[in-house]
Structure formats: C-alpha cells, structure tokens
Write a structure and sequence with these properties.
Length: about 425
C-alpha cells in the first residue's frame, strides 16, 4: 500500500471521531459515507494481502464509531448497519492477519461487558482469528466477570456474561455443553427454541422434540411460542409423525382459535395429506367461540374467508354487522361485490356515511372515495349507473358544507354521468 493511500485511510478513520456537543442529527449522511469508505478501503487491503495494515485501522474505526453513536441519532438504522459492516470487515482482517489473541479477546469481552450495547459481537465470526488460545482467554475473562457480579440488579453484566458463555459453548462444538449452558436460563420460549435448533442441527431429533414440548408446556402463547411450535411440527413431520404434527396444530387452535393458528393448521394438514375433517373441526370450534364471545367474530370471518367459505363469511358478518371491524367490512363487501353486486349497495352506503363522519380519521375523505369507487363498480356491473348518479347527487347535497370532501370528489371525477 502506498504511503499516500495509508495517509488517506488515516484521515478517513479520524473523521469518525465525533464531538459530543454537536447536534445529534447533524452530518449523519456524511458520517455514514465515511464509515462505508473506510470499510471499502480496508476490504481492498484484505483482498490484496495487506490485511495487517487494515487491522489497526479497523480497530480504531470501530472504537470511534461505537463511541460516536452514543451522541448521534441512529434511529433509521443506517449507522448501526455501517458499524456492523465495519465489524464484519474487521473480523475478516483479523482472520487474515491475526493480532495477539489475548489482546483481541480482551477487546471483545470489554466491548460486550462495558460497551454501550453495540455493535453485536458474534463470537463464531472471530473464532478463526482468536484460535484456541484466544477462545480460552475469552472464557477466562468471562469467568472473571461472572465472579465479579455481586449485585443482583446488575442486569447488564449478568446478560453480558450469559451472552458470551452461550457463544463460547456454541463455538466449542460440544453439543451437550452448549445445551447445558442454554438450559441455565430458561426464561422464554425462544431459549427453548435455541436448544431445539442446536439438537436438530446435531441430528438428535428425539431430544429436540422433547425440549420443544417442554418449552410449549411452560410457554403456551406468544410469537416465540408460535415459532417453537413451528420447529416442533417440522421435526415431527421430518421424523415420520404426521398425525402428531397435526395434533400439535389442533391443540394450538383449540387453545386459541385465531386466524394465525388456523392458517398453520391448514398448511400442516395439506403438507401431511391428512383428512379434511381437521378443517371442519376447526371451523366448528371457532363458530362456537364466536357465538359465545364477541371478540372471536373477527377470527371466524377471517377463518371462513381463508377456508374459501366466502358466502358463509358474508352472511355471518351481515348478521352482526355492527360488531364487524371496519377492515373486515370492506373486505367482505369487496368479496361479495364480485359475485353479488346488487347486495352490497346499502352496506357500502352505510359504511361511506360512517367514514365521512369519523372526525378522528384524517384520511376519512380519501377512504370514503375509495369506497365510492367500489360502489360505482357494483352499480356498473348491474347496468344501473343512473341510480349511482342519483345517490352521488344526494351525497353531495348531504355534505354540501364539507368543501374539502366535495373538492376531492371532483378531483376523483365523481360527477353526475361520469
């Protein structure tokens, strides 16, 4: 690398310093461009065999940017992504030209334990540069940190120690040891899911299934539990237990007859070629729930539409129209308009009236015009455009004191005879 190029890179890295007194919104784009330029130049150095030159530059760049983000607005995520990219390039540079293992280990542990919470340290990306000695040093330093945690409310240090211990166990290649470490902190379905993935990747499906079931027994609901159930169902299918996979979906739906659980049940039934009776059972469950609990009406309508029961969905919603959420009213009307346009006129008109009077919705006029377009299509399908014009004139007269709405009607070309 030429001296001039070296100096230019030094200048770029120096630009990553940030005066904490500056406006946090000032100069973010230029700062991001500088960070990307540093990463690109160091990437080029690695490619031409000059990684040893890039290593110290990248250490400075990461340290300076980590500190700078404490005083800059990075809510868009762009600067965070730039820092993550610098870390990736730095890990590759260290792999090509390994620094002193003990020094690198100390820096990584300090970054996690004493840093502001960024950037992420993914130990497997650094393992090639650390080698056996470096990883052993990471483990030793983490043990020191663990011994120093004496305050029960020192949550950050507790998290940092656990985070690094779990990663050390991961890169060790000891599956049982990895599972033991993960099992020390079973506070969520996600933690069970991590154990399941470790065992599944190790080709130990029976144990993975057992851990998945244990996790679902502890955490039965929530998006993490749904992901854990997906893992379990996949394992059951792969190990030749399709009926058990469907049974898991049925249990979940029976506990919570929601559209998401119904969608998952349908997919598993289809994938495993099980009897359609499972679908009929699920429909009966959610019908019963909707009869007893009003909040399940929306799930029933969604389920019926997903199952292709559009006619039943329409009549179910129409019978309890006032209880149907606005989103579903529009969906039901649009579906019905395709096959029975004459039936949707009055419901559309009622919905338009409600929309126009919703003073809390700043987009009420735009939404009303979207509904008017669908209503006009319904009249046109039956060849009764004149009747739509009569309705439109009455609507204009009713809302003559809403000039903004009338102007939007004109802009949308809603005039008599149009």
């Amino acid at each position: 690398m030429r001296v001039q190029d070296d100096n230019e890179l030094t200048v770029l890295v120096d630009r990553l310093r940030r005066d904490r007194r500056r406006d946090p919104y000032s100069g973010r784009d230029a700062y991001s461009r500088t960070a990307r330029e540093v990463a690109n130049r160091c990437d080029q150095l690695i490619n031409i065999g000059e990684a040893a030159v890039a290593v110290p530059m990248l250490r400075k760049a990461v340290d300076r940017m980590t500190n700078a983000l404490m005083y800059m607005d990075s809510s868009s995520g762009v600067l965070g992504n730039d820092l993550a990219h610098l870390m990736e390039v730095y890990a590759r540079a260290c792999q090509a030209a390994p620094p002193r293992p003990a020094g690198l280990a100390a820096w990584l542990v300090k970054l996690v334990c004493d840093g502001p919470g960024w950037p992420d340290v993914v130990l497997r990306e650094w393992a090639p540069a650390l080698g056996a000695k470096g990883l052993a040093e990471v483990a030793r330093l983490v043990d020191e940190r663990a011994a120093a945690v004496t305050e029960p409310d020192d949550w950050h240090q507790q998290w940092a120690v656990r985070y690094l211990r779990e990663q050390i166990a991961e890169v060790s290649g000891d599956v049982d040891g990895h599972v033991r470490v993960l099992a020390e902190h079973l506070v969520s379905a996600d933690q069970y899911g991590r154990i399941v993935r470790v065992l599944a990747e190790a080709k130990r499906p029976a144990e993975a299934i057992d851990w998945a079931r244990r996790g679902l027994a502890e955490y039965q609901s929530g998006y993490q539990s749904a992901e854990l159930r997906d893992l379990l169902v996949r394992l059951l299918i792969e190990t030749g237990e399709p009926e058990a996979a469907v049974a898991e979906r049925r249990t979940a739906f029976d506990d919570q007859p929601t559209i998401d659980n119904f969608r998952s049940l349908l997919a598993t039934v289809a994938e495993t070629d099980r009897d359609a009776a499972h679908t009929e059972w699920a429909l009966a469950v959610v019908r019963d729930c909707a009869t007893r609990q009003a909040e399940y009406l929306r799930h029933l309508i969604d389920v019926l539409i997903l199952a292709g029961r559009d006619d039943e969905a329409w009549h179910t919603g129409l019978a309890r129209w006032d209880e149907v959420p606005a989103r579903q009213r529009v969906e039901l009307l649009e579906l019905r308009r395709q096959t029975h346009p004459a039936e949707v006129r009055e419901p559309y008109q009622a919905l338009i009236d409600v929309q126009l009077l919703d003073s809390y919705d700043k987009r009420r006029y735009d939404k009303a015009i979207a509904l008017l377009r669908n209503l006009r299509e319904a009249y046109a399908t039956t060849g009764e455009t004149t009747q739509f014009d009569v309705y439109l004139e009455a609507l204009r007269a009713q809302h003559r004191r809403r000039p903004t709405f009338l102007a939007k009607l004109d802009a949308a070309r809603f005039r008599s005879g149009r």
